[in-house]
Design goal:
Helix content of chain B: 10-25%
Mean pLDDT of chain B: 88
Number of strands of chain A: 3
Distance between the termini of chain B: 12 Å
Largest sheet of chain B: 5 strands, antiparallel
Shape of chain A: globular
Distance between the termini of chain A: 51 Å
Structural class of chain A: mainly alpha
Oligomer: heterodimer
Structural class of chain B: alpha+beta
Low-confidence stretches of chain A: none
Number of strands of chain B: 10
Largest interface: A-B, 44 and 44 residues
Strand order of the largest sheet of chain A: 1-3-2
Strand content of chain A: 5-15%
Radius of gyration of chain B: 18 Å
Shape of chain B: globular
Strand order of the largest sheet of chain B: 1-2-3-4-5
Order of helices and strands of chain B: EHEEEEHHEHEEEE
Low-confidence stretches of chain B: 195-206
């Protein structure tokens, strides 16, 4: 770097290193337990935590290129976090809530349309499902954000970072 | 990439192989489509893209495979370097840019995506920038230039990267085993606003 100042791209060296160090995280079980504990504090997400026990949902944390929640089957719930700079607690909790909402919708009968379905019908069915999910996620984020014990988590800010800024704005405007 | 779709039977066989690993991510056979493409620098290995449409948005993962073992690409350089040793990688002056493209589009930094800019006009978001920023990008851009390194099989690549809202002029060393390191990097332009998410979602059959 020809600049005399601090190299703003120093982390690029780490990315290219042969042994990319995966950022240290608490134990998977602890992360999941803590996240469920937080979700149980909101009336908007309490039922999701009960659903985990009731339906014996299997929750796993996986390393993925991007942060993602993934529910291939209603009883298999994945939260994908990146190896470098992984999701901070609030984002992780929201990703888990997102996955649990997906599982809930599946269990409630909102099945994903088959991939052979006509494009228009596929879009309208998935859009409806997504709208339900995101609306509920906004309610969870807002409710947790209002609680004093979670004031440092900044749930609404994390919703924006997850790309739900417009949905969050609409939700707050309609309160 | 020129993705080729696997038939349902072949896709099912691939999912069976991946599913043999008890730690593997579950993909539903009913909702998953698999496409593959060759990578010129891996003579024995191909790239597979699995897209599960069971969720919205769709969930995708890429794997490198010789048809027997499937190694997931997790956003770090580790699996790519592991395959480079296993395959082994075969780099030439003709395919080193393809390798860099592959590498940077699958390895993410803590500040997001790293893009190797081969031509400013190919930047996916260029049109969304205001005219002054577009001009700055075009003026700052340094074209790709490849030369042999000091060691046989090593290449030195001069080019432009986009990372963390900045254009960076970079000189990269690519060793014969595919390891990358920076020789030099300089900020060309900062505060390029990224107007849209670069996450790709896949529609069936694409």
């Amino acid at each position: 770097m020809s600049d005399t100042g601090k190299d703003p791209f120093a982390n690029l060296d780490e990315i290219l290193s042969p042994e990319t160090s995966v950022s240290s995280l608490p134990d998977e079980k602890v992360m999941i337990e803590k996240a469920l504990e937080v979700l149980s504090q909101s009336s908007m997400s309490f039922s999701l935590t009960e659903m985990v026990t009731e339906h014996s949902l299997k929750i796993r944390i996986i390393t993925t290129p991007r942060e993602v929640s993934y529910v291939p089957e209603s009883k298999d719930v994945y939260v994908g976090i990146t190896a470098i700079n992984p999701a901070q607690p609030a984002k992780f909790i929201l990703l888990l809530a997102d996955a649990l909402l997906e599982a809930k919708l599946e269990l409630d009968g909102y099945k994903q349309p088959p991939i052979t379905e006509a494009r228009e019908k596929y879009i309208s069915m998935t859009a409806e499902k997504k709208a339900r999910k995101v609306a509920h996620l906004c309610a969870i984020a807002f409710d947790l954000d209002q609680k004093e014990q979670f004031s440092g988590y900044r749930f609404i800010e994390e919703m924006n970072k997850l790309g739900h800024n417009r949905a969050m704005d609409v939700f707050i405007q309609n309160l | 990439m020129v993705w080729k779709q696997l038939t349902k039977e072949n896709a099912s066989a691939v999912l069976d192989k991946i599913g043999n690993d008890p730690h593997a991510i579950v993909f539903s056979k009913e909702f998953t489509e698999i496409a593959w493409d060759e990578l010129s620098f891996y003579p024995r290995f191909d790239l597979y893209r699995l897209v599960n449409f069971a969720t919205m948005p769709s969930f995708s993962m890429e794997y490198i495979s010789d048809g027997k073992a499937f190694l997931p690409l997790d956003g770090t350089a580790n699996p790519i370097y592991a395959i480079n040793d296993e395959a082994p990688i075969s780099l030439t002056k003709n395919n080193v840019v393809e390798y860099l493209d592959f590498f940077f589009s699958r390895v993410r930094g803590s500040d997001g995506d790293i893009l190797l800019i081969k031509s400013p006009d190919d930047m996916p978001f260029l049109d969304s920038l205001d005219p002054a920023q577009q001009k700055s990008v075009r003026d700052s851009f340094k074209p790709l230039h490849i030369e042999d390194g000091n060691v046989p099989g090593q290449f030195i690549v001069h080019g432009t990267l986009f990372y963390s809202g900045c254009l960076i002029s970079a000189i990269l060393r690519v060793s014969s085993d595919g390891r990358l390191s920076f020789i030099e990097r300089d900020m060309l332009l900062r505060n390029i606003s990224f107007p849209q998410n670069t996450v790709s979602y896949y529609w069936m059959g694409e």
